[in-house]
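Narrative summary of target 7.
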Amino acid sequence: IHSTPDQKQKRSGIAYPTAKLGLWAGGNMSNMKSALSFRRVSPTKKKINAAIKKGVTLFNNGRHDECLDVYLQTAKEVQPDVRESYLNYAIIDAEELRAAGKHKDGAWVMRDAFNEILEPSSKPEATTANMLHEDDSGWQDEREAPQDDDEMGRALSDVVEILRASIDLKTHNYIGKSHDECFRGSEAVDLLTSLHLSPSRIHATDKLALLWRGEFIVSVSHKSERSFHDGARLYRFASRAELQSSHDRFAALENAKKEGTEENCLLSTLNAALDKSTKPTGLDGKRPFNSVLVKNPSKYLSQLSLDVQSKEQEEGREIADFCTEVEPLIEVSDRKYHLKTYEKCFVGSEAVSKILEAKVVSSREEAVSKMTELVEAGLVYHVLEEHHFKDGPLFYKFSSTKELKKSIDAIANIHLSLSGDCAKYMALITRYHHLTCNLNITSILNDFYGCEDDSGWDISDLDNWRNNMKRWGFGRRTDQDDSMVDRLSPLLLNVDPDTWDVSGDPEWESPFGILAQIAIFDQVSRSAFRGTPDAFKWDELAKRATKVAIKKGYFESAYKSSLNRFVILLPLEHSESWEDQKLGVSLLLGMLSEIAVLDEGLSDYEIVKRLEFSKRLSVAFLEHAQVIAKFRRYPHRNRALGRTTSLEERIWLASDLVPRWAKSQNPQGEEGKKVIKGPTIPLKRLTRR
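Modeled conformation, tokenized:
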């Protein structure tokens, strides 16, 4: 968002309501004051202010290319009057980004250059001393600033280690040239801010610039640049030989012998990095060292020690407990600011009020202090990662399990030498445990089958089949057990489909573990997030569970109830793969050929009902397969998934050939009323002629 109340927070976009401050979109207070003092404003600054005012409207409406054109045109007009060379570099970078189709990044490059011209930064160059000791820096979220250059060096070395462990090195193309094993500057900045190792992108860039000056990071795309850039420029990590060379160069400098100088701190950092690189997981391989890649959530929790052994760990647990206590009190929803929607966030001042109303704290000051601890620990963060917690109109989010796991992975192997590190680590793992501890097979299946223990999970009674299918939403929508969906759906939000992997887990890959996965990933998801992309977000996990069950022979012999065998096949029925459909149809028809004609010990009524169920199941399954065979996807999902609907699909969706199940994901309630419904095309009658 190109709207900022001050230069230091230029990318927050939601810091203060502009109506209250009297700011135009894209301006800042100092710019406004200077604009009102016409005698003090140069023609160059007037042109830049006019360009920003025009460009902001275009940018915030998504017209990034037009915004970039406005900025570049103005930059070239004022270029002869601007002495600073960074405007020339900004123009070159922006034009390169425009040629690469990255108009948004190019607009930001020019906007940053304009901001620097309008209000030159008054802060000194980002050195180790002033960065690590400034009050709001939050280096690794330590509670106490490092006391000497050696300690600063170790902290800086930890940051390098985290960067190496977390950034995936790839081959990037930049202005027609390919570069291997490198990363974009913005990726490193994103990482430091997302892990809450820097309170803002500006501060993260300063830290990375310090590492660049220490030659831990090497320029790839712009070898003659003078500092690190937050943007599309490419960088790589220095090899051990390069670090040794840098160490020797710094050791020969006179300033490197003086405590408190940047050179002395960087020399300490190089010493720490080289010392770590002598270990087996050092700098000699392509893959960064100390990468903690834990995929299995149930196994992962067993590796996280929640035993409190120190005062700092107890402090961390208390922080996590407070987060879990106040989360239900705070209203989390999608919120808009300047035409942009921020999903699942809350307002800082509203959170403080809710916590105070619930008497969790005794004053607003105490509430702010407690929420600040959550931000420092990485359990809560500003939506654009530009602010610490404030009792004001700023948007914040609770860290998801994916974000928590990323933070834990990144710091798991570094030296937790500072008390703040220990407290933060305990807060992270305790909070992760809080969010995932209810993700267990017993609670899922008891809710799914509406029973109190495992005796109700595999009942072959016909009434059990009928009642459960109603509860799961196979019949009328009003028969669905919404309370079951409400209880189980929050568990889904704590499962990241990209990282969940229970391969080889004896519990989750047991017959009932498979059923539990399918229950929440295939059935609960469709009911809880009806009409949204999240309804299909976990489909791949459900399909994987089904194929494990088939491979292990569970489908043929593990269950007494044919209902459970049918549940195993549901992810195949919902798949948009024709191969999955063929497999599902063959297994279903084989199963029905066995059970449909069973009559031993059954009354005539039960035999008839069994045949009726078999007919309905086979018809629905074959209808799904027919749609996939024709369209190779489900057209009724196009709206939710943002896909373009073809003419043939439009005709089919508007016809009387659409089965009832294909309408299950239509918008409901108020959203459903907004959908314009045209006349039904009578394709059944037309195709019979």
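The chain has a mean pLDDT of 75.
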